[in-house]
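Example record

Each entry pairs one chain with its bound ligand, flavin mononucleotide.
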Amino acid sequence: MAIKQARGALKTARCLCALPMCAAYTSSMSDACPPLPSPAALAALRISYERAELDEASAPAAPMALFGQWLAEAIAAQVPEPNAMTLATVGADLRPSTRVVLIKGIDARGIVWYTNYDSRKGRELVANPYAALQFHWVELERVVRIEGRVSRISDSESDAYYASRPLDSRIGAWASPQSEVIPGRGVLVANAVKYGAKFLLQPPRPPHWGGYRLEPDNWQFWQGRKSRLHDRLLYTQQADALWLRQRLAP
Ligand SMILES: Cc1cc2nc3c(=O)[nH]c(=O)nc-3n(C[C@H](O)[C@H](O)[C@H](O)COP(=O)(O)O)c2cc1C
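Structure tokens for the complex follow.
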């Protein structure tokens, strides 16, 4: 309903987007002409970031400490899905791809998430085990970027996490051939019924499902500041395992 109303409101305005398909558009938006925000509307979307500062003199020597502090602050601030991060991978075709996953573990070894090993990201990580993660805590005007090498976690770690998931999530891991084209939603529902009946309350962890750990060798912390003079700190791992801390221009 809200979408219908918004679309109706847009129909009253001239479409200012630069797409050729919209060039002739005046007041009669058709389904062929998507309700795109005009460049002027997009240009007007700007805020000044003034919530906090990030100073290299007082930042922790170890990036994991700063990340732990920022993640805890995001959780305490009750931002939506503070554990959601964008995962970027690059497969054999050299085309980057991104998706959102949830951080489910963090310790000195790195950052853990769970997924389907046969998915697009899984296939790309086989071809190229390097990845990048990005957290964007909008309300805190903060971004963390993390790069490093990725490896599968142990079967026992994956088993333990899988066993902690709600039953429908455990069945869902069986039901979804993640990243595959399927003829319709019915496939998922039918698979869930099938595997639910097969495994009842005790589904084993699917062999194609488990965790990955990214071992960070490069971290960037971004804190929005006034007048676009943002604070950025880069931590790079040195040969002696100590972290070099440098400020980057925003
Ligand atoms: C907030 C959020 C959290 C998600 N968490 C996960 C996750 O932890 N693991 C996962 O495999 N997919 C997760 N997804 C779905 C992925 O974004 C993505 O659709 C899926 O992993 C397939 O990606 P791929 O085809 O690039 O491999 C999440 C999506 C959203 C929006």
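The radius of gyration is 22 Å.
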